[in-house]
Amino acid sequence: MNPRQPTRIARRSFLTLAAGSAAAVPLLAACGSGPAGSGPGPSGGAAVDVDSVIPDYVPRDIVTPDFPSVDGSTPGYLSFPDEFVASVEEVPGRGSSFTAMTPLWSTVPPGLPDNSYMVTVNEEINADFRFQITDGNAYGEKLQAVLAAESSVPDFVTIPSWTLPPRFGQAAENLFADLTPHLAGDKITKYPNLANISSDAWRCCVFNGKLYGLPYPSDLINSVIFYRHDLTSELGIEVAPANAQEFLDLALELTDPGANRWAMNDMWAGAQLMFRVPDKWILEGGNLVHRVESEAYRQALEFQAELFAAGVVHPDAVAGNEQQARQRFISGEVVITPDGAGGWLSATREAYAGNPDYNQQPVPAFAGDGGTPVIFKGTPSNLFTFIKQTDDTERLEEQLALANYFAAPFGTKEQMLLEYGAEGVHHDLDDANVPTLNETGLREVARTYTWITRPPIVASQVQYPSYVEDFATWMAGVMEYAVDPVFYTQQIVEPPEFGALEQPFIDLEMDIARGRSDISALDAAIENWRSAGGEQLREFYAEYLDEQ
User: Fold this and answer.
1) Residue 313 DSSP one-character state
2) Is 114 exposed, middle or buried (0-12, 13-18, 19+ CB in 10 A)?
3) What value does the mean pLDDT take over residues 134-147?
4) Of 326, 343, 319, 317, the residue nearest 262 (C-alpha)
5) Could you give the CA distance from residue 540 to residue 495 in angstroms, rounded to a whole number?
6) Per-residue pLDDT for 10 more than 80?
7) Residue 153 near residue 480 (C-beta atoms within 8 A)
8) What is the pTM assigned to this prediction?
9) Helix, strand, or coil here: 308?
10) 188 C-beta neighbours (distance < 10 Å), count
């Protein structure tokens, strides 16, 4: 038991948005799964029914998936269609020029006029797009500088949720177009590809009671523990632990330093998954409890330390070298690693050329105590794109028509062009109609237009044997364990004074795992967290819970 009980609150439903002055209240981009009540919100204004400002959901049936979505899981396609269809009836652009600020976590491609991919797409959409591509790792700093001066704001601004600055709601009202009158409810039917995006993804784009952003749909399941199925098969070792002890036993069996093989990389993300640690908050008996206060967090820390003490963690991971974690997994120096769901494809793509037998799989879902697993859903849209304010309604409608083009779903001509460029110029099709980027495509095609928005994500990488089926069936299967976290899909930007509260725990997690601190140090850290602002942070979040 914690020596001090956290603030008691009644059972509450989620408040989807509190209207009022953005300067007075830090940003809450509300996208809860249900309508808000009619009582006052945190700023003293009336609560807003978010469902009244988001678009209707009208799914498109372009190509029937081989593995349909289950409760929001990612569908899978085992083949590309014989013929790609058009999802947009008219050319979306009217010959206008636009600037767009987007991130990129890879090599920046050539710009215009030296990029034939951009030339081709601009001609196809009848719009002159000029991209201001910024290194994703430095994006937050660049974003704040851009938002500080209205004259420097591009026509489209893509913003990852983790770079949203404090009081961004005020910036949204002052700088960006309110899309509510153009997209809310059945108005979205003018843009059928945008209407194909889920309601939850759109809820993440509501700021201060209005729809400001365009969503970037994501997988709902993010955190995964992977293992090298090809290696464990060779060793004759089954990977199906039912609890934490069986997982440790498996790790001991896999570890063989003489063969340059260790069981795992740093397993902190996996330990949190095993012991049901939430990303931020949980409700326990009516109490709003921070993750670091939870018994689940303590159990995960203790198990993490047990893994390190057992010698099953790769020495480089013990030393804190996480930059090479994926490479250790691909090379086979470690057999188990935690990663995001998207890491499955990126690691497979990296490994497959040199090792066509490479086969990574998720460790079957289990809980550390042997009970029912819990997998907290990720947000359905972690990025948003905003359109700069304009009094020119026709220009805004042109921008929305272009966004509708960029959201073209799998199996369409538009999606093929955006993802792979022009056939014979940037990609080639094999006998099964599967596209592969050629030398020009690898140099010039990068995620640019589809940062602005994209269609619902699918698994369609059929060039990697069994990947689509394995990924889609795995995600569909674990959806039975998926739960909505507290404040599910709400983008709440904390006041800056709380920004450093969790840093001591990051350091403590590393120290406890490596035996430099005992688990007893956690109690003092929790007390320090509470007195340094944790209780005020709890009160801040409690304001966004609506009394039932």
Assistant:
1) B
2) exposed
3) 91
4) 317
5) 9
6) no
7) no
8) 0.87
9) helix
10) 24
pLDDT digits (tens, 9 = 90+) for 85-112: 999 999 999 999 999 999 999 999 999 9
Q: Could you give the CA distance from residue 328 to residue 310 in angstroms, rounded to a whole number?
A: 19
The tokens for 315 are 């020495």
What gap in Å lies between CA 42 and CA 30, rounded to an integer? Answer: 12
Q: Would you say how long the chain is, in residues?
A: 548
Cβ 6 vs Cβ 288: under 8 Å: yes
H/E segment holding residue 199: helix 199-203
Single-letter residue type at 93: G
Give the closest residue to 222 by CA, choosing from 380, 382, 377.
377
Q: Minimum mean pLDDT among 34-48, 99-113, 210-224, 276-290: which range?
A: 34-48
Kind and range of the H or E run holding 246:
helix 244-254
Nearest residue to 252 via CA among 183, 335, 323, 194: 335
Cα-based angle 399, 401, 404 (whole degrees, multiple of 5) = 115
Q: Has residue 140 got a pLDDT over 60?
A: yes
Structure tokens at 494: 């904390």
Euclidean distance between CA atoms 385 and 446, whole angstroms: 17
Give CA–CA dist 357/4, Å, rounded: 54
* Per-chain mean pLDDT for the chain: 89
**379-395 pLDDT per residue, tens:** 899 899 999 999 999 99
Q: Classify residue 161 as left (phi > 0), alpha (psi -120 to 50) or beta.
A: alpha
pLDDT digits (tens, 9 = 90+) for 191-218: 999 999 999 999 999 888 899 999 999 9
Rg of the chain over Cα atoms, rounded to whole angstroms, equals 24
